[in-house]
From TrEMBL:
GO terms for cellular component: peroxisomal membrane. Signal peptide: none annotated. InterPro entries: PEX11. This is Peroxisomal biogenesis factor 11. The keyword Membrane applies. GO terms for molecular function: identical protein binding. Keywords: Membrane, Peroxisome, Peroxisome biogenesis, Transmembrane, Transmembrane helix. The chain crosses the membrane at residues 83-100, 120-143. It comes from Artemisia annua (Sweet wormwood). It holds the Pfam family PEX11. One of its GO terms (biological process) is regulation of peroxisome size. The lineage of its organism: Eukaryota, Viridiplantae, Streptophyta, Embryophyta, Tracheophyta. It is found in: Peroxisome membrane.
Length: 226
């Protein structure tokens, strides 16, 4: 029990940990609004207030985070030219998303012209979607390399060569983490598409709610202390 409490404290001490928790509140509230709007309008209104407040809080938590893209490119440009090319576009898309998200937050809080909200939302979501597409491609490349590496290790075991079996376990753990990242990116891509090109599927409360929770819980899993 104490170990779980310690892990929760560590998780919530991280900026990403707080973000995933508040994101859970945001999208659970969205689903509650959809469920209660005809049965209990008063409760639905309260859930809507929680959803809006959570969304604005998350934007405040992300202040300055667009700089992490520069840091990612500086520290780990990638093992191959192709990977570096993908990394540039992925991080550039994320930087655009997080940078213009600042202005979206300011417009929705009334600090700057509220009429700018729609334009800022479109630019931010467009950069976000570009980033997610390239991040997914990068993750699939690394998953493919991990599978090939695992096959080579298993072939070595069959030939009775001395191999560290823990290496296979590490590859499998890495694969799960990357699949969680792909799940989160695809879920967030659906949310971004709802801003870029509104449509009945992406903009439906259930689609947005489930996508938001998939993204939040996949991120929760990846950030939870091991």
């Amino acid at each position: 029990m104490n170990d779980k409490v310690d892990k929760l404290v560590i998780f919530l001490a991280k900026r990403d940990g707080i973000d995933k928790l508040v994101k859970t509140f945001q999208y659970v509230s969205k689903l509650l609004v959809w469920h209660l709007e005809t049965k209990n309008p008063k409760s639905a209104h309260r859930a809507k207030q929680c959803e809006v407040a959570s969304g604005l809080s998350r934007k405040a938590f992300r202040m300055g985070r667009f700089l992490t893209g520069f840091n990612a490119l500086r520290r780990s440009p990638g093992p191959t030219p192709t990977f570096r090319f993908l990394s540039v576009f992925a991080n550039a898309g994320e930087m655009v998303y997080l940078f213009f998200d600042h202005f979206l937050w300011l417009s929705r809080t009334g600090v700057i012209d509220a009429n700018l909200a729609r334009r800022m939302s479109f630019i931010s979501a467009f950069g976000e979607s570009v980033g997610y597409v390239f991040f997914c491609v990068m993750e699939f490349i690394m998953i493919k390399e991990g599978i090939e590496k695992e096959k080579r290790i298993k072939n070595s075991l069959l030939s009775e060569e001395k191999v560290d079996e823990n290496e296979i376990k590490k590859i499998k753990v890495d694969r799960v983490m990357r699949l969680m990242a792909v799940s989160a990116n695809l879920a967030d891509l659906i949310i971004a598409l709802a801003d870029i090109e509104p449509n009945p599927f992406c903009n439906h409360a259930i689609t947005l709610g489930i996508s938001g929770l998939v993204s939040a819980w996949a991120g929760w899993y990846r950030n939870w202390p091991s």
